[in-house]
Amino acid sequence: LRATMVVGSAPSSSDLARAFRAVALGRRSARRFQPDAAIPPGVLGEVLALSQRAPSSFNMQPWISVVVQSTERRELLGRAMLSESNKRRVRDAPATAVFAADLEPARLLPKLVELERRRGQLSDDALDRLTVSAGYYASGGVLASLVKGIAARAASPLTPMPFPERAREWALKSTMLAVQSYMLAATAHGLATAPMEGFDAERLRLYVDVPDRYSVAVVVATGYEVGDSEETETTAPSPRFAPGEVFFADTFGVPFDGVATLPEEADES
User: Fold this and answer.
1) Per-residue tens of pLDDT for the chain, all 269 residues
2) Are residues 247 and 256 in contact, defined by beta-carbon separation less than 8 angstroms?
3) 241 CB contacts (<8 Å, ≥6 apart)?
4) How far out from the chain centre does Cα 51 lie?
5) DSSP SS3 for 195
């Protein structure tokens, strides 16, 4: 499925809803990829550009992605995967995006402040507040997190306080938002994806020359799935837990009433 709306047009909300429903329901984790089906450069380039529009805390964008396409590197990547199915995916897929979180996101702050200054929409006071606030979250070693945690717990009964996280955990949240944007953008452009976490992270990092500063979060094999369209379309979607076990109204434990039933779920009942 591919959304055909053009950037800059003004589609109706119903058009957007139908397009997104098609993309969300069309995304699936591919089991096998066509090894000889190359992705057109323009398609892959737009998928990457759309992925970069993913949100991140303070717009820090604490992640990078290495897009592996060469036969040599795909073979090396396969050696880092833990299962035979994952090895096959990365060796056959024409592209595999390796997403990694920045373990030192505070180093991005000067560049972000300069970008915001050039954009010209934040005052000097706002830029100063951005530096302080983003720096609080982005600098999170073991000792720093411990000290900030003690301070936050002491002040929390009196005023709302942000509880600190390690820099890695903080950066991983933004990284996974980018991963989801990547997969949905790929689906919208007619591509299949397969996100994988079954790999030797140290080997993988070395094979694609990712510095110690980054922690590999997930790899996403990308390409065109093997199998005829009829088989793909008739494959039942993977099951999901009952909405009442996932979505709650106002407080935990009170099921949210009114979660829509998707077409595939209605067919299964």
Assistant:
1) 444 444 555 677 889 999 999 999 999 999 999 998 999 999 999 999 999 999 999 999 999 999 999 999 999 999 999 999 999 999 999 999 999 999 998 899 999 999 999 999 989 898 888 888 887 777 654 445 444 454 445 555 656 545 456 788 889 999 999 999 999 999 999 999 999 999 999 999 999 999 999 999 999 999 999 975 444 555 678 899 999 999 999 999 999 999 998 876 544 43
2) yes
3) none
4) 8
5) strand
